[in-house]
Design brief:
The protein is mainly alpha-helical. It is built from eight helices and no strands. The longest helix is centred in the first third of the chain and has 38 residues. The protein starts with a helix and ends with a helix.
């Protein structure tokens, strides 16, 4: 028992030192983050008029003459965004936004980002509703508008891939190019699913 005591004491000292070092490191990181936030909050307002705002091609969108209530609701939702500024700020923290564009611009930038999130949701649901009601060409138009606008939703890409698979396979390279150019963290998974979709279609043809 006496022989074990020096080893227990040694490891206790090592553990205490590591714990103290970890505590100091965490404290330093926390202080660095607080300092960054203080700097961000004091950053002066900058011009944001020339940012890469998203434009919705309303003249190309397929507004039906006699839409169902479901489709009509999405048509109305997309018209609500007309004239509003839209920005994809996915992956950029509020602190980074303040550091880059000034703290005073944060409320507007957050609103523009919310508009983008709403845009993606509306276009995805609108296209799905059109597909469910067999308006495939119209759904394709909505989905292509979404892709051109930079919407990086996996459901948008996969629905468009499904339409291309059944109607115009020659357009698949265009879609894959858009996915590769997107900022979506899911691009690899999306491409794998599209590849699986293509393989499934090929095997069906072989049978």
């Amino acid at each position: 028992m006496k022989l074990l005591f020096p080893f227990v004491l040694f490891f206790s000292l090592i553990f205490t030192m590591l714990l103290k070092k970890s505590s100091i490191s965490f404290s330093q990181q926390a202080e660095a983050l607080l300092e960054k936030e203080r700097t961000a909050n004091s950053t002066r307002k900058k011009d944001i008029s020339n940012l890469d705002y998203i434009t919705i091609p309303y003249e190309k969108l397929p507004f039906l003459e006699k839409p169902s209530e479901r489709v009509k609701s999405y048509e109305q939702d997309i018209l609500y965004l007309k004239g509003q500024k839209i920005l994809n700020l996915n992956g950029i923290s509020n602190t980074e936004l303040k550091l880059t564009y000034g703290a005073a611009n944060l409320p507007n930038l957050m609103q523009y980002d919310e508009n983008y999130i709403r845009l993606v949701a509306i276009l995805g649901k609108w296209a799905q509703a059109l597909m469910d009601e067999n308006y495939v060409t119209e759904a394709q138009t909505v989905l292509e508008a979404a892709v051109e606008a930079g919407c990086d939703s996996s459901s948008i890409y996969l629905n468009l891939a499904s339409i291309y698979q059944s109607t115009d396979i020659n357009k698949m390279p265009y879609l894959i190019e858009k996915i590769n150019a997107s900022s979506s963290p899911m691009k690899k998974t999306i491409l794998e699913k599209i590849n699986a979709l293509s393989c499934s279609a090929d095997s069906s043809v072989d049978r």
